[in-house]
Amino acid sequence: QSYCHRLQHDMYFLTSTSRLNEQVVDKIVLQLNRVYPQILTNEEAEKFRNPKASLHTRLSDLLKHLQKKGERHCQEFYRALQINAEQLFNDLPSRKILKTPDPTEIDTDKEQYMLNDRGPVFFLACFSVAAGLAVFWYCCNSETQVIGRARRILGFSPIIIGRHVRNICMLYLEDISRN
């Protein structure tokens, strides 16, 4: 959806009473006047900041003017609105349409939670099992000649792995070294 269509869709919401106050509209107009590339000329900025006209009229004229100017101008208006009135920007009807999830799309926030809900203990347990299996496989490989070193490492590791697991690994290493 283009920014011009979004602005047309959001126009009623923005111009309704007490959505935007005088100060926020002035800040937006000044930002559009000072941003590069300059969206509003000095004369246009003075016209849209004229305190003699009602806020509703000035805002409606500004939005119509930006729609006539094109896509880039409408995009810069949304950027200025986001900077100067973020809560209002998040409540725009066009933003709500963009935020509506596609039912076939995966919700990445929910998926991320689903993958990470087990905590650090589970990670450490899985990592320990994987590291133990890697050491075990490396020691059991017939091409490697590190059984003596592995036996020394496993002999001094009752803190890392339980005594029962260490004893099983030691028996297995002794059995392999006999063969």
TrEMBL record:
The chain crosses the membrane at residues 120-138. PROSITE patterns: CARD (PS50209). One of its GO terms (biological process) is regulation of apoptotic process. Pfam families: CARD. The keyword NADP does not apply. Associates with BCL10 by CARD-CARD interaction. This is Caspase recruitment domain-containing protein 19. The gene is Card19.
